[in-house]
């Protein structure tokens, strides 16, 4: 007959009883504390292994006021129907996860529809997080500013305004919009259109940059057509916009790569060739941008570099240092659509 498996130990008290010592000695032994004799440490650790006992790491972290968990939060105040499956979110989340887990942190991911004024306070006051990374400012600039005045370990992907309190990492969106406009104008386009939802600060700045380029070239102010980022409505909205503007536009600056891809498809459905008849630019430089046909001309946000900068700034802030904002230069990636 085979021996029965040893009974499973559920907590430190049971392990202490089994080892014939007090619970404090067990706790120190499992933490490899040299105050406990080596022989005793090894005996207790062997018993823990034999009886399948694993210390509750979260409880230990809470005792030392360190959770080793970072909250990655996507606020969707301006676009409640947008999904985490959006290619931009998936791209930046992947880079953030790599940088955090390589340094021993776990991630708590939240997609938040701001439903009350104190939605961000509830997150940072939860006691479960060592710090917070916000992907986007949405239309929540004031809420983020309010919390940043007293909660330091927080870094935000987004635009930087002079005098703001919260720490941001992102590109100069206005310059990026201007680069897109200059690219369209250099291709001989004169009737410019912007597709995007400009209640988000980043997209508002991109539209302003497009207007800067048009003004410098002596062209009319670009038409702005609100386009939501929610996948279930985006394609229909863009198709309606393309039908409406018809031959009135020959250069389209999209607020994101995903909008640009849908735009190229909608134009093709109407028999309009890109870039022969209409030039199109995106904004993000997602991996998908060079896999489309035609390949997408776009503005790079340096997502991988930016994600690493966000995590680096957050570590600085967790350590009690300032961790200043970072504004990267956007880069025009010239491919086939413009």
Give a verbal description of the structure:
The longest helix is centred in the middle third of the chain and has 16 residues, at about 200-215. About 40% of the residues lie in helices and about 15% in strands. It is of the alpha/beta class and about 350 residues long. The protein has three domains: about 10-55, no CATH class; about 70-170 and about 305-330, Response regulator (Rossmann fold, 3-Layer(aba) Sandwich); about 175-300, Rossmann fold. The radius of gyration is 26 Å and the shape is elongated. Helix 1 packs across helix 2 (about 25-30), helix 1 (about 10-20) crosses helix 3 and helix 5 (about 85-100) packs across helix 12. Strands 2-1-3-4-5-11 form a six-stranded parallel beta sheet. The mean pLDDT is about 90.
List keywords for this structure.
338 residues, alpha/beta, Rossmann fold, 3 domains, six-stranded parallel β-sheet, four-stranded parallel β-sheet, 12 helices, 12 strands, elongated
- Strand fraction: 15-25%
Report how far apart the termini are: 77 Å
| The CATH topology of the largest domain | Rossmann fold
Query: Spans of 5+ residues with little confidence (pLDDT < 50)?
Result: none
Whole-number tally of structural domains: 3
Give the overall average pLDDT. Answer: 89
User: What is the general shape?
Assistant: elongated
Strand element count? 12
- Classified by CATH, the class of the largest domain is Alpha Beta
- The portion of residues assigned to helices is 40-55%
- Biggest sheet: strands side by side, in what order? 2-1-3-4-5-11
Based on the coordinates given, report the CATH architecture of the largest domain: 3-Layer(aba) Sandwich
- CATH evolutionary superfamily of the largest domain: Response regulator
* N-to-C order of helices and strands: HHHHEHEHEHEEHEHEHEHEEHEE
Tell me the structural class. Answer: alpha/beta
């Amino acid at each position: 007959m085979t021996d029965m498996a040893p009974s499973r130990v559920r907590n430190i008290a049971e392990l202490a009883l089994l080892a014939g010592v007090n619970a404090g000695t067990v706790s120190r032994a499992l933490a490899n504390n040299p105050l406990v004799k080596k022989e005793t440490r090894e005996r207790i650790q062997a018993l823990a292994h034999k009886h399948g006992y694993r210390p509750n790491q979260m409880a230990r972290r809470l005792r030392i006021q360190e959770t080793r968990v970072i909250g990655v939060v996507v606020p969707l105040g301006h676009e409640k129907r947008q999904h985490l499956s959006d290619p931009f979110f998936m791209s930046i989340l992947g880079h953030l996860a790599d940088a955090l887990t390589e340094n021993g942190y776990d991630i708590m991911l939240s997609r938040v529809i701001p439903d009350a004024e104190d939605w961000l306070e509830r997150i940072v006051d939860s006691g479960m997080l060592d710090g917070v990374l916000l992907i986007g400012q949405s239309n929540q600039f004031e809420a983020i500013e309010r919390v940043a005045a007293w909660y330091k370990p927080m870094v935000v992907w987004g635009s930087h305004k002079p005098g703001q309190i919260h720490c941001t990492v992102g590109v100069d969106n206005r310059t990026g919009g201007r680069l897109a406009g200059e690219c369209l104008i250099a291709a001989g386009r004169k009737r410019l259109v912007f597709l995007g939802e400009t209640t988000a600060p980043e997209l508002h700045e991109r539209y302003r940059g497009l207007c800067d380029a048009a003004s410098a070239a002596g062209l009319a102010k670009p038409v702005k057509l609100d386009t939501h980022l929610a996948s279930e409505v985006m394609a229909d909205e863009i198709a309606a916009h393309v039908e409406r503007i018809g031959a009135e536009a020959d250069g389209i600056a999209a607020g994101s790569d995903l909008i640009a891809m849908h735009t190229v498809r909608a134009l093709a459905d109407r028999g309009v060739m890109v870039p022969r008849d209409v030039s199109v630019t995106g904004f993000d430089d997602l991996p998908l941008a060079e896999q489309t046909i035609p390949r997408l001309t776009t503005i790079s946000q340096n997502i991988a570099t930016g994600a690493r900068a966000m995590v680096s700034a957050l570590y600085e802030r967790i350590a009690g240092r300032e961790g200043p904002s970072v504004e990267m230069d956007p880069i025009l990636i010239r491919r086939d659509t413009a």
